């Protein structure tokens, strides 16, 4: 019998330790003597009862059990289990009315989808649909610049008897009353995500909207969000933040809560800006020069408003071993794969009908695409990179977070080849584990 490589421990009171396993999510609290006996010297033979309990919880494993090989087998099982699809990302246009400095779509084309391509998209869905309720994520570009294409595809799917729901990712500027009516009536939208990164003049400066000369873009978006909420649509605000400017994210959340917290179908979350380190530092960095890691600081701030506390807002479905939803909120819940884009049949479709394994490279052409809805899938280099179940970096196999991130973000590993691929909680997971244990009263 030997110790699991995924045990995390800390002395949180003098002579008392907590130990947590990132794979099984088991936790124990032990005194120093017990900690040294089992978790330092690995003496599993003097007390069969304790040894058996630690074994059953995953802290101890068989000598010949290879945890890395087992995780690899889980990734393979998930990646190759589904032949048909139940969801897809569609960009009806790659054009956008905003010009954010950090946007990952710099360098993509800006074409709008044609009717011919829209027909091919519907045919692709028809041929690959698994028969369950189909989920469409409207993306872009800014998808609301091509509502006619969204109308067309939605109507065609209805004619094909494909039962679907949708969600929209938008900057919110074009979320007019007419669009809200279409979202409810025609697109079967159940959630809208609006990305906001600052307030008032700072927001206007960052978004730098095309063909908008007057001030007040922020107020327009906020009014549109309120209109959507009043119409009954669920709205989630993605608060994009630069780790070096966490105060702006705090101020924005405070403002949004004061404005919208009375809507039960409103929510927000903090999302680190994912860009080149020369533009914005990776949130996976240690930030050792700061008193507290910026993401940990924001999580603690969000808890004041009921976020990162489990399922207190809404009726979100929980996973096994996460009865409260808290592990998922804190990004600690183990996953069988790093990203479902690794599944061979999962794609995002840009406005030309090109197929991409990841929506973050939509519209960037042959280097990143793997075929087209009209001509089929091409198993090229990027396709094979995504569908390969090996971790991107050898160091991943030494990381205690491997059961959670399963090797991290594939596309960031491909583009940046550095810690951008790592989980955003890479340098704060011990603090988050302790936060989880305290909130569940394990310690």
UniProtKB/TrEMBL annotation:
<dbReference type="InterPro" id="IPR058240">
    <property type="entry name" value="rSAM_sf"/>
</dbReference>
<keyword id="KW-0004">4Fe-4S</keyword>
<dbReference type="GO" id="GO:0046872">
    <property type="term" value="F:metal ion binding"/>
</dbReference>
<protein>
    <submittedName>
        <fullName>Radical SAM protein</fullName>
    </submittedName>
</protein>
<dbReference type="GO" id="GO:0051539">
    <property type="term" value="F:4 iron, 4 sulfur cluster binding"/>
</dbReference>
<keyword id="KW-0411">Iron-sulfur</keyword>
<keyword id="KW-0949">S-adenosyl-L-methionine</keyword>
<dbReference type="InterPro" id="IPR023867">
    <property type="entry name" value="Sulphatase_maturase_rSAM"/>
</dbReference>
<keyword id="KW-0408">Iron</keyword>
<dbReference type="InterPro" id="IPR023885">
    <property type="entry name" value="4Fe4S-binding_SPASM_dom"/>
</dbReference>
<dbReference type="InterPro" id="IPR007197">
    <property type="entry name" value="rSAM"/>
</dbReference>
<dbReference type="Pfam" id="PF04055">
    <property type="entry name" value="Radical_SAM"/>
</dbReference>
<keyword id="KW-0479">Metal-binding</keyword>
<dbReference type="InterPro" id="IPR013785">
    <property type="entry name" value="Aldolase_TIM"/>
</dbReference>
<feature type="domain" description="Radical SAM core">
    <location>
        <begin position="80"/>
        <end position="304"/>
    </location>
</feature>
<dbReference type="GO" id="GO:0016491">
    <property type="term" value="F:oxidoreductase activity"/>
</dbReference>
